[in-house]
Amino acid sequence: MLFSQIAAFDLADWPEPSLDTLSEQLAEKRFAPTLSQQVESMGWAPVVAEALAIETDGAFGLLFRREERAVPPRVIQDHAAKKLAEESGEREPSRDELRQARENALLELLPQAFPRQAETRLIIDARNKQAWLANAGEKRNSQINSLLRETLGQWRVTPAFGSEEHGSRLSRWLLEGPPAGFELGDSAKLLEPRDGGSITVTRLGLPDENVLAHLRDGMTVEQLELVWRDRLRFTIRADGALTKVKALDTLDDEFDDDGLDDPATRLEAEQRLTLDVLRELTRVLHEALARPDATS
Question: Of 100, 132, 179, 190, which is closest to residue 5 (Cα–Cα)?
């Protein structure tokens, strides 16, 4: 599995370009490192060798890369205060002077900041009009979708599992049992909707009577670990994102890496397996989360 986190989306207005056309479009937004006074840079990085996309069974694999230069706010504040003291002496600086001093301090300090990079894989399924991002963070996924709109033009996505919270559904799964094909894991996070309190349990056989008692008292499930068909272990959040995704032995046995010494060939094989899993898992989760009775 190429993904350790999963955010699933349904597509609208997907232009369905060929691999060559898509690669040309991605090249126009190719990643370039930050300049000395640039806070961040983002773009498309090669998936393997120089290829900006690879195609597998009607789906495209891409790689989003972001680089940022971060200066701690305290360092900026201290640097600005020192400059202001040198220029203003005993006079109390105005609010505009403070703001300008902080902006100048950031520009002066940015070239000294060490750039940090982060990458996110994504698969765009042209055949089934779906996309999966290997990230569960809303901010990062918003950046990726914005860049896709800049790259492809028309690009609209909606959460594959709906935009509503699924806490009550996950609570029923814990109380009454998960849908067919799923088993409860050994961790969960419960929220108290009235005061925002939470309880996190790990390495505990579920369902546990103490945990169930909290649910009956009005708490709801925010996160729940599940095992799917002995192939995958993951934590599903109330917003529909999946984290801590881990392939189990059954799935590992399906990946035959004999003779896959070539990086491109190996990546294509891994993407094919990941795509098969994502297509099926998204389908069964969508059905389970959408049906009126999740335990039927």
Answer: 132
